[in-house]
Amino acid sequence: MTAVGIDAMEIWTGKLKLDLAETFAPAQGDDPGKYTKGLGLRASSFPDVYEDIVTMGANAAHRLMERKGLTPEDIGRIDVATESAFDNSKPVSTYIAGCLEQVYDENFHHANKGERKFACISGTQSLDDAYNWIRAGRNRGRAALVIATDTALYARDDPGEATQGAGAVAMLVDEDPNLVELSTEQGYGSADETDFLKPNQQFPSVDGKRSVNVYLARMREALEDFAEVAGDIHPGDYEMIPFHTPFPGMVRKAAALGYRHIIRGTDVGDLMAEEIGRQPMRSDFETDDEFHAAIKEYTDALTETERYQDWYANSIEPTLEISREVGNWYTGSVHIARAAGLKHARENGLDLDEARLLVASYGSGAQAEVHAETVVPGWEEEIGALDIDEQVRNRYDLSFAEYEQVHDVHNHETETDVEEFTAPENEFAFDGWGRMGERKYRYVE
């Protein structure tokens, strides 16, 4: 069976930066550690005045196609995953295709285009769709372009404001990939939840504490379901575990839960039992409250062990390096986690050929998916082509007053006239409004 997976990827971050410790925290009257230690974030990325989900997605896709020497005739499918869409009918993929057609002689008229929505997990769902399309033999030798693009904007003074971010990830899904092969096994955890939603509104309504609990519950279900189809799981099976990362502090909780689950019945579990005792079982307690208290005590002890901390440092921490600098990208979040982990491995000379990743995606509302990926030879060249460090370094550093202006620019309910902070160059840019209220774009050389 021919391998199908991610052949290449590109990342495009919003061109503006909000420093959480130096700029945001003082303006809010907060201790910087609330963000850098509690949330695990150092900065957020924002789109400039001429940027939005279309320009970021189109720029990432254009860079990917140029690097791989592709034309529109090579692409049979364009799927865009976003929870920042501005039209309830016309998909963002059509806008992005229109942008790309400005710079190519061919068009995408014979490519299937769509838009996926299920909060942050829709980026992974779009990968699944592309994978299934190729596996079904409907691709006619063509590849799929999957684009996750979002501007995660919260209302001012909302508890989620510090986790904001903006950027896009473009992924080429094809046969015989050069980055990772996707597994056929998947595990799901899904339930009708109202932890985070946008009922015909731009800014999300969030129940923060419940959202964390729902995230963890769905992740646990997805991991259990994955084990049903993939077989027993051992901590040593996976080199890294990229999680959906709304903020790194959330991943700390999910990683502890996941590790606790996958060591059960293993030699690692036996070693942990000698050190901190066996994991609590529900049958040993009269009430749920007593059981949950015991589980918390056990998990706290678990995370303090050297064995767990070594595992976390090697398997989880490397995947958070990009997110710490750019914030939450919603649908792109887990995909920049994958990129960060592979980037760390390349920079540190780690041999990941044929190594396995366990990818844990999540979307509020709510659903989690766990699947495995195998890193394939060629990954080092593909990851080495990314210039995310340069993009992050070159962002314009906003003052707090400028941040307030930028927030107003991208708030659909606010009309404001703000000058650009950077100049577009060799990229797509917003170019005003059309006769039916549509957004227009142009390529700026």
Automatic annotation (TrEMBL):
<dbReference type="GO" id="GO:0010142">
    <property type="term" value="P:farnesyl diphosphate biosynthetic process, mevalonate pathway"/>
</dbReference>
<comment type="similarity">
    <text>Belongs to the thiolase-like superfamily. HMG-CoA synthase family.</text>
</comment>
<dbReference type="InterPro" id="IPR053544">
    <property type="entry name" value="HMG-CoA_Synthase-like"/>
</dbReference>
<dbReference type="Pfam" id="PF08540">
    <property type="entry name" value="HMG_CoA_synt_C"/>
</dbReference>
<dbReference type="Pfam" id="PF01154">
    <property type="entry name" value="HMG_CoA_synt_N"/>
</dbReference>
<feature type="domain" description="Hydroxymethylglutaryl-coenzyme A synthase N-terminal">
    <location>
        <begin position="3"/>
        <end position="175"/>
    </location>
</feature>
<feature type="domain" description="Hydroxymethylglutaryl-coenzyme A synthase C-terminal">
    <location>
        <begin position="195"/>
        <end position="409"/>
    </location>
</feature>
<dbReference type="InterPro" id="IPR013528">
    <property type="entry name" value="HMG_CoA_synth_N"/>
</dbReference>
<dbReference type="GO" id="GO:0006084">
    <property type="term" value="P:acetyl-CoA metabolic process"/>
</dbReference>
<protein>
    <submittedName>
        <fullName>Hydroxymethylglutaryl-CoA synthase</fullName>
    </submittedName>
</protein>
<dbReference type="InterPro" id="IPR013746">
    <property type="entry name" value="HMG_CoA_synt_C_dom"/>
</dbReference>
<dbReference type="GO" id="GO:0004421">
    <property type="term" value="F:hydroxymethylglutaryl-CoA synthase activity"/>
</dbReference>
<keyword id="KW-0414">Isoprene biosynthesis</keyword>
<dbReference type="InterPro" id="IPR016039">
    <property type="entry name" value="Thiolase-like"/>
</dbReference>
<keyword id="KW-0012">Acyltransferase</keyword>
<keyword id="KW-0808">Transferase</keyword>
